[in-house]
Amino acid sequence: MENKPHEFPPQQMEQPGKEHKMNPEPEIIRDSYKGSDKLKDKVALITGGDSGIGRAVAVHYAREGADVAIVYLNEDKDAQDTKEMVEKEGRKCILIAGDVGEETFAKSAVKRTVEELGRLDILVNNAGEQHEQKDIRDITDEQLKRTFATNIFGMFYFVKAALDHLKEGSTIINTTSVTAYHGNKLLLDYSSTKGAILAFTRTLAQMVADKKIRVNGVAPGPIWTPLIPASFDEEHVKTFGQKTLLKRAGQPSEVAPAYVYLASEDSAFTIGEIMHINGGEMVTT
To answer: Where does this protein have compositionally biased stretches of type Basic and acidic residues (predicted)?
Structure first.
């Protein structure tokens, strides 16, 4: 059978994107995915957990037996939909709205997670934003600071707040990107933050290894999430993902199992590593 390039219906939306307005909506979890208590009675805090990869991670974690705290900006309907998906799996879910780029919010989000869910075992730093610009001169000071605040400063803030609660066997998982390795000429500031996350992950892993806390990351390639129609023009969205070997974009359901692996005992000897889920985009690690 010929491997024909997949196309999405042309669409655009304002940031932050809304998953319930996407056409088609992303696949969050496969019906065939069977949980096996890999994360039984663990508690996970996921930034950017309302939609896309974050939502898929939350639902997969719930199917594996974890309770979940979802941190998001202002996408209330998407967050509520995610909460319902988690609860459908028989697990607890709390929603915490705020700006991950503010340290006071990070502290309060971690505090609330521990107070309401009883503990914290897994921190997933996943929140991110990107803005297409063809010329570095068009990247305003406001955009530059906003992108770095969301994508990398927030990771510092949440890790700082979480470390008082994480114990031996706990895990931290950071979402970087394939752009950290080969860049993207339309996403200069975003790619720069993703490179910073790569270094942050590897260095933090060394810093907390003595505490028996494992730090790893995931570098997704082109994945169909609300960030895509909220970042690019209709023509880019239409052909999104066609440059992969599979000639299509990936789905959140195809990324989330990597986060399950890195959060579970299956990855007990994996530390400071980055998992590449990108449809065959060869990168040098």
So the answer is: 16-28
| Tokens at 35, concatenated | 């949980």
pTM for the whole structure: 0.93
Which residues participate in catalysis according to the annotation? 190
| 216: region left, alpha or beta (phi > 0 left; psi from -120 to 50 alpha) | beta
Q: Map out the domains of the chain as residue ranges.
A: 36-275
What is the band of 12 on the pLDDT scale with cuts at 50, 70, 90? confident
What the block records as the tokens of 134 is: 């063809």
In the chain, beta strands by DSSP E: 43-47, 67-72, 93-97, 122-125, 171-175, 214-220, 274-277
CB 100 within 8 A of CB 127: yes
- What percent of the chain is helix, strand and coil (3-state, nearest 5)? 40, 15, 45
How far the first Cα of the chain sits from its last, in Å, is: 33
User: 3-class SS at 142?
Assistant: helix
**Does domain 36-275 bear CATH number 3.40.50.150?**
no
